[in-house]
Design a protein that fits this description.
Length: about 325
Amino acid sequence: MRTGQDLELSHVTKRYGHTVAVSDINHVFTNGSYVCLLGPSGCGKSTTLRMIAGHETISEGSIILDGTDVSHLPPAKRGTAMMFQSYALFPHLSVRDNVAFSLRMQGQDKATRHRAANEMLDLVDMIHLADRLPAQLSGGQQQRVALARALVTKPRVLLLDEPLSALDPFLRIRVRGELKRLQRELGISFIHVTHGQDEALALADECVVMNNAVIEQSGPAREVFSHPRTEFVARFMGGHNVIDLDGARYALRADGVHFAPAGLPAAVPAIVRTIEYQGSHVAVTSSMTTMGENTEVLALIPEETFFADPKNPGDAVGLAWDEGRLHRLQA
């Protein structure tokens, strides 16, 4: 349900000379939601985030927050805050003073800004390190300080530009859980740019998939993953095969493909090409022929099922799936 506090992009375009980085985007980011903007490098997602923040001018269109056009306001006046990928902490300031810096620029007295900084540091579980310098912190700790600094101004929208990319895989999973917790506790909108599909699916109430300067598809994370509209979205989100059958193109989830005896009418003959053990399942890529074309098909086979009747590259197999698992793509 749309409210006056939503963030709306209305016909937003960004050009660099003759190059169009973002093309006539219209989208409403629902207040209080966690939204992930995702897509390949150069698709326009970071440019879109920077235009919302005010760190990039718009060429055409409007950015409307809480019913007010903020397109031409400076970043500090927009009601948004941005957490940068590099964290950009001041090396000579303590953790507390880093978090309080924007309040200092607003002219708040030391006691007031330190009280607000301590509140944010407590929220991100960093109050015990408030007197340290950034160089004395781990990457994950620096990330939390940057997050507290972005939140201390109490923005209506927090913008995050690939905030987890510098973290190791284990820490990334832990921190994304903390981001989701914070978003729910604060009740404000988070708009998070990522190129990681697993990150978006884990975090987002809404996924906005961009490609070639436009929004290709948006919607709840499960809907975008399970019902991609286009071949691009199906391939980019991963876990799907794109196959041609009876003159139409379909997406078929890899976990919906299984092996069947080659003689069964429903089985499509194929040759195993690669096998990857991935813990709870085995990823098997096979080559089959449809519509006169060779098509690679990925099957995610449960570990126990695969090893009960293991396959090897070069083996002939029969591939089968439930027709109800086929999802027709737009032409």
